[in-house]
Amino acid sequence: MTDTTTVERARAWLAHDPDESTRTELAALLEANAPDLADRFSGPLKFGTAGLRGVLGAGESRMNRAVVRRATLGLAAYLLTNEPDAKTRGVVIGYDGRKMGREFAEDTAAVLLAAGIPVHLSERVCPTPLVAYAVTALGASAGVMVTASHNPPEYNGYKAYAKNGAQIIPPMDTGIAAAIEAGPPADHVPLADLVAARTSGLLKDLGESVRQQYLGAIAALIDQGTGDRSLSIVYTPLHGVGLELCSEALARAGFTNVHVVAEQAEPDGDFPTVAFPNPEEKGALDLALALAKSKGAALVIANDPDADRLAAVVRTPAGYRALTGNEVGVLLGHRALERDARSPRPGQPLVITTIVSSPLLGVIARARGAAYDETLTGFKWIANKAMEREATEGARFLFGYEEALGYSVGTVARDKDGVGAALVLATLAAELHADGKTLVDELERIGSLYGTFTSRQRSLGYPGAEGSKTMATLMAKLRAAPPSELGGLAVTTRTDCLAQTRTDSTGTHALSLPKSDVVVLELEGGHRVIARPSGTEPKLKIYVDVRLPAGPPTEDARRDGAELLDRLEAAMVARMS
């Protein structure tokens, strides 16, 4: 039986829902006194790691046209108050191939236009990095990308960008949230007529010229004509929107032997060939691997559905090996530092990763005299930290990554860019291929120079409103009674990003990172375990990093490292289950 308060909230929402389809859905749920009403009205969606994201459907806790219109009115109110030239600079809007993507994008445009804010609307589906690039390329006051990235088919989302091209952070996100809360019901949100707005010039297409500028910008990230560009590559966009730009980028760079997974080439919001449209998930790359084997391809590259992430698989003598996000991050980061060293410029080179990514990039950066930083999970923190250090120190941002397959090479896009990263990784593979080597060989070389970290991520699912409460309780217990040892190893340092403290043998010290529900346990021997709830999925994530001895890793060291990974993972899962 649904409680009276929830029913009243649902009826109030129904009275103001402007979309006939979700009104019909919600009316049926009320009639049946459906148990999931409580979940649908557990509170408004909040701007999390990547903006708004949720399951499609009726209710304040779902993604629907009512939520999008109210969110956009909040965005418009914030811009008109805090960006005086918003009515001149406008807003960029894009969308990927997910269900309701076009509808949400057009609703977003209609609300902004009604507020007198010009719009550059993508005339077709497009990748997320193109929108991030377009915000700065067009000098817009903000951007919106309608996407749920790699979430399951039933999800969609609303990613907001500030005028600097990076995802929004405080105080902008909290300011928008306050404006949303203060706004009227969804059916009272003013809407402009898109046809009339296009005629008046207030609504413009994003345009082909922006796409061409973006392709030219990422082409500058590589050395032209290097390596063996007849390297055989298999590419899949996983039913997403990466094919057009990624294929053209590779072709322009001279890659002549690229095979596309035909079954996954076109955008399809049902994602019919995969159980989960995330290239990290088991089975997601099965079709790509089958094609690679039939073609004898040396490299498999995959974007997620909005093409802001990149996965890679390499052919080795022992068979095809999937690279982890940390391995690709180290390859691209090391390559960026090496390439930069060949043409020194004023300012210290800077690379950035997140606190849950492998520590190896930091080891490399310090050894090469580069600046290094770590941020909270979420590319918004990486991008904004990069711009902060560029402005205050004159640093030159070369590369940033997070272990969940997100990479940004250079400053083309101030967000994850799976297309630009694919071009750079393919070029590195081609250069190695010309010398009879692979990306795996390059990882071995890097490990012999700087040491090797082996990493693992484990996700524990806790869906729904009750799942969120469970995760909060588990994290609170970890803070209240932190372990002194884990897997037989002493805990030497505890970092609590919510309390903003770091505790070691010398005492407790203040932490400069923003507040976030993350606990880091550093162990003797240089190993590390981290726990945090995901900001985009109903999961509690555990990260384990094991440091192997310096020098070429032996079989014994690999075996010992794998056993320690298993032991530390099991110990942490037991605490967080």
Question: What keyword list fits this structure?
Answer:
Alpha-D-Glucose-1,6-Bisphosphate, Chain A, domain 3, 577 residues, 19 helices, 4 domains, 8-stranded antiparallel β-sheet, 6-stranded mixed β-sheet
- Work out the oligomeric state of the chains in this entry: single chain
Q: What structural class do helix, strand and pairing data support?
A: alpha/beta
- Biggest beta-sheet profile: 8 strands, antiparallel
Quick one: how many beta strands?
23
- Based on CA atoms alone, the radius of gyration comes out at 24 Å
Poorly predicted sequence stretches spanning 5 or more consecutive residues: none
Give the CATH architecture of the largest domain.
Answer: 3-Layer(aba) Sandwich
How far is the N terminus from the C terminus?
29 Å
CATH fold-level label of the largest domain: Alpha-D-Glucose-1,6-Bisphosphate, Chain A, domain 3
Mean pLDDT: 94
Which range best describes the helical content: under 10%, 10-25%, 25-40%, 40-55%, 55-70% or over 70%?
Answer: 40-55%
- Give me the number of helical elements: 19
Could you walk me through the main structural features you see in this protein, from its secondary elements to its overall organization?
The chain folds into four domains: 4-206, Alpha-D-Glucose-1,6-Bisphosphate, subunit A, domain 3 (Alpha-D-Glucose-1,6-Bisphosphate, Chain A, domain 3, 3-Layer(aba) Sandwich); 214-312, Alpha-D-Glucose-1,6-Bisphosphate, Chain A, domain 3 (3-Layer(aba) Sandwich), CATH 3.40.120; 326-450, Alpha-D-Glucose-1,6-Bisphosphate, subunit A, domain 3 (Alpha-D-Glucose-1,6-Bisphosphate, Chain A, domain 3, 3-Layer(aba) Sandwich); 452-575, 2-Layer Sandwich (TATA-Binding Protein). The strands form four sheets. Strands 16, 17, 18, 19, 20, 21, 22 and 23 form an eight-stranded antiparallel sheet that branches. Strands 1-5-4-2-3-6 form a six-stranded mixed sheet, sandwiched between helices. Strands 8-7-9-10-11 form a five-stranded mixed sheet, with helices on both faces. By secondary structure, it is α/β, with parallel strands linked by helices. It has 19 helices and 23 strands. The longest helix is centred in the C-terminal third of the chain and has 21 residues, at 555-575.
